Amino acid sequence: MTALVEVRDLAKTFDVSAPWLNRVIERKPKLFVHAVDGVSFSIDKGTTLALVGESGCGKSTVARLLVGLYAPTRGDVQFDGQATHAGRNAAELRTLRRRMQMIFQDPYASLNPRWKVLDIIGEPLREHGLVPGAEALRARVSELLLQVGLAAADCDKFPHQFSGGQRQRISIARALATQPEFLVCDEPTSALDVSVQAQVLNIMKDLQRTQGLTYLFISHNLAVVRHVADRVGVMYLGRLVEVAPKAELFSHPRHPYTRMLLDAIPDIHMTGRSRTPVQGEVPNPLNPPSGCAFHPRCPHANARCSSERPVLTRIQGTEVACHAVQEGRI
Amino acid sequence: MVAPLLEVKHLRVEFPTRRGTLLALDDINFEIAPGEILGVVGESGAGKSLTGAAIIGLLEPPGRIASGEILLNGRRIDNLPYEEMRKIRGRQIGAIFQDPLTSLNPLYTIGRQLTETILTHLPVSAEEARQRAIRLLQETGIPAAEQRIDQYPHQFSGGMRQRVVIALALAAEPKLIVADEPTTALDVSIQAQIISLLKRLCKDHGAAVMLVTHDMGVIAETCDRVAVLYAGRVAEIGPVGDVIHRPSHPYTSGLMGSIPAMDEDRERLLQIDGSMPRLNNIPRGCAFNPRCPQVMARCREERPELQDAGATRAACWLVNDGARPS
Amino acid sequence: MSTPSPTAAPNWLARWRDSDIWHSFITSPMAMLAGFIAFLCIFVSLFAPWVSPHNPFDLATLNLSDARLPPAWMEGGDKRFLLGTDDQGRDLLSALFYGARLSLAVGLASVLLSVLVGVGLGLLSGFAGGKVDAFIMRVCDVMLSFPSILVALLINGVGRAMFPNAQDTLALGVLVLAIALTGWVQYARTVRGSTLVERNKEYVQAARVIGVAPLRIMFKHVLPNVLGPVLVLATIQVAAAILTEATLSFLGVGVPPTSPSLGTLIRIGNDFLFSGEWWITIFPGVMLVLIALSVNLLGDWLRDALNPRLR
């Protein structure tokens, strides 16, 4: 299985310093947030890698780095063997853009409220010159609408005439317009009701099967991830702490944070049973802990954990970044 | 049989608009016993938040209670004048809303907000109120409560703020807490903490809880009984284990089936085609009939009442005929 | 598997008549009254040459012996001049219509220019960010620290000094420019704020992922969504611009004296107020107030109608 997407040591740092004038007058130092701090993974063609984690872990930033909305501070992204950021001219970048697209979380903000559905879905077609005229455009847009379970007559309507789930389908149709091979999905169902979520997830799985799509699926909902993913990566404070095939991760979680996450999910089959609540909260990203970022909340932390940052290493088919696991302590 | 703490009878809430009157809640009936946790679950537009708002008396105009009764300890509270309702709010009914950021006034210290609530409703001195406030903060797990009581809301993290909101809700020792999506805006690991805190505190203070949420997992873990709302009506109501594992209403079983489970792999999630009808377009008869896989002719004509179906009560004609949905 | 979709989209007229804005207009007596008065004023200004009994700008038709006649219903009045005449013998009613035309033209033109400059700079500022944004905002701050009348006087003075034998149209152009340059700042700030909000929305990010050029995103995606508040501001600003023009004309540095605007008439009449010929000042004053008030009320209604929270 060849890897369609390969990410090596990807990092993104944001400068969140106060404006220059304030810094000079109040003598404040420059402030940086390491939203993504050295992340490496690969995605095989036709499979789905899910990235999970809580807010602030950097998974959404990784998504945006992959599609080019941010430029990485360090590291590189390879798509089909070609680097996506370094030394690309405009034409090559455009071709690359056609092959990967993104679906966003908020169905109400991801469609321009003043544009008709025809224009929204037709924009990528127009931009890349994929259809020869207005007639062909309408035909292709209608075809895409039918693919996601909407009607061809919806072309002439505005987003506010649709429900959240239908809008998300319009987003999917727009993403599919250029026939991409790789879709980055940033929490596509988090804002939807459970029954609508089921519809959208089913469509996404069907499309993957019929068109051979590769997905990067970002979510904080582990149950949804379990349903759609082939492999799962767990992120904490900008770092990958564990990457494993789905079955392995859910049956034998290795990293203490993964175990904590799995323990903290409310499941409808656990009626009456309380979850084991966890200590502490996610630390301030402006001031991350030294060494392993999870050590203040980890029941297995030792001196090495607070000074040395663990590296993602392969252990029996999964990759884990944890001293305790590598030392065989847990 | 203990007398119920809260009774909602035939509640109807409507919204007059220029295109006609929209009926947002249509004949809602349920009860909450003292100390019990009732979950009110439903998808967006089902009316669960409106139910909470109607009970607290905070319906946003032009919405209003068209008919029906809400009784607290046997006394009607839906038709009280503003001043009377204000006294009940806080003292007898506490409220927890979704967004901890906007639930607290950013301009006052949390100590001031807590003591203000306590002094408004309880006949204690200012010093005693402050002591109570500190004790409440300690109970909700805020470290260094004696110092943090004089801090402002923006100095707390999201999870901490929600704990303060819980303390605020419990400050005047109410008998009923209405919690509207209290953990939706929080991370999963914090959710677990807050939910277990809510459960414990309400048990300790003897308060009943009406927990409004769309998250079935939270309901499964927290509630004693649950009411499932659909299009402004109660579809099913009963003990939480029965509603989740042995539902009688096709909507409930569809809902449970569409939730991805942690313990089994399925190729496709169970899917209910279509979507909840808009308020101006509610079908005749049973509101769920266009989407129901087991619809009968009767469902399109007559609206079913809540009927006994084993351990739960469901508003479905199938129940009458004894046939259960798969 | 096709989901039942909402009914087919109606044409734009039906959509307009069914819209909340139109309904809000129909049900507000104040808005309808203000709209009616504003419409009347615009009508008489547009069709002044056909509606006025005389042409007060045509020097050939003026007769000094007709000067300072009182309104027709008073003693000494002349039926030809319904509201009396001014010191040059101009029929006041006609002068009102022509003057309103001038005032409205200058007001609308300057607001249009303001909007173009302000919205353009605001979009650029919000979209580009960084140093460009900082620079434009500092320019705004500087402009705001000058009283608008002084700025208008300054630009007007400079214009006259540069073109001492200017034609009337050039003088008017300078006047429009002067008023426009005092008003653009609020559009720039408002649009910048809205642009900052819209820029982070996901439909803009989606356009970037598709590969749309930034300029195109700015005009086709962001611009339509930030124009709402601009419309309200512009409506209210028209009244302010008209008043500014009137003030400048009153001070004598506005429109050329041969084609008096309402402000000029008020100034002329001011000299005669105490000698009893009150109509030369009062009628133009009333007209000015009517225009400014109706436009302001319309702006107020529009702001409330467009505010989603109040609907």
Which value, in Å, is the CA radius of gyration of chain B? 21 Å
Quote the average pLDDT of chain B.
87
Radius of gyration of chain A: 21 Å
Q: Give a short account of the largest sheet of chain A.
A: 8 strands, mixed
Q: How many strand elements of chain A?
A: 12
Residue stretches of chain A low in confidence (pLDDT < 50, at least 5 long) are: none
Taken in chain order, the helices and strands of chain A follow as EHEEHEEHEHHHEHEHEEHHHEEH
**Spatial arrangement of strands, main beta sheet of chain A:** 6-7-8-3-9-10-12-11
Number of helices of chain B: 12
Pair with the biggest interface: A-B, 42 and 47 residues
Shape of chain A: globular
Percent of sequence in beta strands of chain A: 15-25%
CATH class of the largest domain in chain B: Alpha Beta
Q: Tell me the count of domains of chain A.
A: 1
Task: Give the quaternary arrangement of the chains.
Answer: heterotrimer
Mean pLDDT of chain A: 88
Order of adjacent strands in the largest pleated sheet of chain B: 6-7-8-3-9-10-12-11
Largest sheet of chain B: 8 strands, mixed
Segments of chain B where pLDDT lies below 50 for 5+ residues?
none
Which features characterize this protein?
heterotrimer, A: 330 residues, alpha/beta, Rossmann fold, 4-stranded antiparallel sheet, 12 helices, 22% strand, B: 326 residues, 2 domains, 8-stranded mixed sheet, 23% strand, globular
Description:
The complex is a heterotrimer of chains A (330), B (326) and C (311). With 330 residues, chain A is α/β, with parallel strands linked by helices. Helix content of chain A is 34%, strand content 22%. Chain A has a single domain, classed as 3-Layer(aba) Sandwich (Rossmann fold). Chain A contains twelve helices and twelve strands. The mean pLDDT of chain A is 88. Chain B folds into two domains: 206 residues, P-loop containing nucleotide triphosphate hydrolases (Rossmann fold), CATH 3.40.50.300; 92 residues, no CATH class. Chain B has an eight-stranded mixed sheet, with helices on both faces. In chain B, α4 crosses α5 and α5 crosses α7. Chain C has 311 residues and is mainly α. Chain C is built from twelve helices and no strands. In chain C, α5 packs parallel to α8 and α10 runs parallel beside α11. Chain C is globular and about 75 Å long. Chains A and B meet through α6, α7, α8 and α10 of A and α8, α9, α10 and α11 of B.
